[in-house]
Design a protein that fits this description.
The structure is a homodimer of 347-residue chains.
Chain A lengths: L8 H8 L3 H8 L7 H14 L5 H7 L5 E6 L5 H16 L3 E6 L4 H13 L4 E4 L11 H5 L4 E4 L10 E4 L1 H14 L5 E4 L6 H16 L7 E4 L5 H12 L7 E4 L2 H13 L9 E6 L12 E4 L2 H17 L8 E3 L2 E3 L17
Parallel strand pairs in A: 1-2, 1-3, 3-4, 4-5, 5-11, 6-7, 6-8, 8-9, 9-10
Antiparallel strand pairs in A: 10-12
Helix pairs in contact in A: 1-2, 1-3, 5-12, 8-9, 10-11
The first copy, chain A, binds a DNA duplex (30 and 30 nucleotides) through helix 2 and helix 4.
DNA sequence: TTGATTTATTGGAACGTTCCATTTATAGGC
DNA sequence: GCCTATAAATGGAACGTTCCAATAAATCAA
């Protein structure tokens, strides 16, 4: 055990009675080597317990076969689903994605990006942490390293983005709520330092306006994008003089929180208060009641991001088109009609 | 932009008018350098847009500051929670963990491990994929690379394991069920190629035996460790002549599936059929009804695994003690008394 | 046979760091 | 002023690959 000084290609060469260059060629699967020689070498590789040293190789070769995937919140199942989509396409391209979590912390993100770059990754797929400064990716851009954003974009950045059509999704969901008869609507969760927030809120507002809901009848409550945030939003909203009867939530986690808080107050989500989520994570359909949500096809976005990255690497460019993924509203059981319309409120 | 030929410490040296050795020293934060010189160098580093090349450094230095974390199912929130725990301790040690997903695929696992090793990681924390062959980690062991398993162990391996006390957890949960008056019990989900499965099932059996449940009154249904698996298990069980009235599930995902399937049949989880989960993921407390589950402290296990790894790296050993984490049963609302047994207890 | 071609193999010079052994500059003691 | 001790900076040899240019061996055309 504690095997002394790890084996190098020179050890293999000695063992197999060939030159180091031959070994190198075999390792790269070159067709130039006579099959019997290759076999001999491969045997020697086994015998000495050799581990390829990519650091050494990277010193000469331009780039590695690893790409970094930087995610802002690993505990959000949404990102796990996206990661799985990416992995599917990278795997078939012989690329190994390494995932790193920033936990929404820009400082941590800085460290992670630095580490990934030092490691010599071939490209970066990033879902930026909240509060990322515009200059945070300058380094990477000047290094000419391919990078694509997923889900979130930065205010004024030329980096390509793969994201769902947030604006349309929010419009769809809001129209659904209004169609159910709701007249006092809320938008729950998220915060204005996120571009996505503005997109979704924009869709919400546009639908309200188009369908004749006065802006004084809309309520916007910022908050954490988590269950806890949802709970807080609902509390705030119900404390108002004329509380809303329905809410579009920034994402499913917030929606789950809202439903939880409703239950705690003895209100039935869906019947007493309508709620729509965003993202349509797998749990959405298993909740009680099942959550109506805007499906964004997370795995599909992941695949798309991976494809774009692959293309950028191959064509050694750092430019690419944005990609706005289609969305659709999945109607389940969390939005009944407005009950109070007509008869004051019961709560 | 597109700055060709990336800058090296030689470029910095030229820019700052010092030698490459000096630059290297500054990079490592050596106290040997005069502060003004260091400042000058640091400025030059900024100016040329330098990116540290860890590959080159690794060629001389023994090991890097990255450790690999290989996970068998990223979409299981349990692992995300564990990952977060690990990250907490690694971060403060200046180590960046790279996460890779194997999706329960031993072949993929092989690739991932290879890639991580080539990358020159300082250590590996692995939750092995189902169906991993005993020899899969031979390579890593002979290379003298520190490795620890989490959650799962391999049949006959000397690699240290960080895992919860599965046996005790299952016993606790089963005793709880029996205490509620249930006499026909099931164990749902998991499969016998997992050591964990035998541990949990063993605890279940031991409790049954100790508390006077005949083994013909117990039912064991293997199945996927997912919601889907849970649904299937329940269907199978209810199709029996004398179906069980309560089940211990292999993990929370299975339990969620069971509850879902119960609802679909018009049965109320908790009242009509008792179910207890394993792992106590965050969703457990938010479910309807809230799920009684064996809490294993996932984040704590992650932290512990990280600490063990850190110690192994520092003491450059490849040995470490196993660590069996404490468990406790969190009683919520998913297990009522057995209704069919006359009247059982009043709780 | 001889030279030309093709097929296999090989030595050596990079790649960008680290680190040891030196050198050079600075300060102190007398 | 000289010698010594300390502080600061430096050159050069690794580290384990890749890749080019060169060589050696085998094949072929004449």
């Amino acid at each position: 055990m504690a095997s002394r000084a790890k084996a190098t290609i020179l050890d293999i060469a000695r063992e197999a009675g060939v030159s180091k260059s031959t070994v190198s060629l075999v390792l790269q699967g070159s067709g130039l080597i006579r099959p019997e020689t290759a076999l001999k070498v491969r045997k020697a590789i086994e015998d000495v317990g050799y581990v390829y040293n990519r650091s050494a190789a990277n010193l000469r070769k331009a780039h590695s076969n690893v790409i970094g995937m930087v995610i802002n919140d690993l505990t959000n199942p949404f990102f796990a689903e996206m990661a799985v989509g990416m992995e599917r396409v990278f795997q078939s391209a012989g690329i190994v994605p390494f995932i790193a979590n920033t936990a929404e912390n820009p400082v941590r993100q800085e460290e992670v990006l630095k580490s990934l770059m030092e490691q010599g990754v071939a490209g970066l797929i990033v879902s930026p942490a909240r509060g990322t400064t515009p200059g945070a990716f300058r380094r990477i851009e000047t290094a000419g390293l391919p990078i694509v954003f997923t889900m979130r974009r930065l205010p004024e950045s030329r980096i390509p983005v793969i994201a769902p059509d947030n604006h349309r999704g929010a419009k769809l969901a809001t129209a659904h709520l209004i169609g159910k008869g709701h007249r006092r609507l809320a938008f729950f969760g998220g915060s204005s330092d996120l571009v996505v927030y503005h997109e979704r809120l924009g869709g919400f507002r546009e639908a309200c306006e188009a369908l004749g809901i006065a802006s004084r009848d809309t309520l916007v409550v910022e908050g954490e994008t988590s269950r806890r945030g949802g709970i807080a939003c609902l509390e705030t909203a119900l404390a108002m003089a004329e509380p809303p009867t329905a809410a579009l939530c920034f994402n499913d986690a917030v929606a789950f929180g809202v439903m939880l808080a409703l239950r705690k107050r003895g209100l039935e989500p869906g019947a007493d208060f309508a709620v729509v989520g965003f993202d349509d994570v797998v749990e959405a359909q298993h909740y009680m009641p099942a959550l109506t949500s805007v499906a964004v096809d997370s795995a599909g976005l992941g695949e798309r991001a991976a494809h774009v990255m692959l293309k950028m690497i191959q064509s050694r460019t750092t430019r690419a088109e944005d990609h706005i993924g289609a969305v659709n509203l999945v109607v389940r059981d969390s939005c009944g009609p407005d009950r109070r319309a007509g008869m004051g409120d019961a709560a």
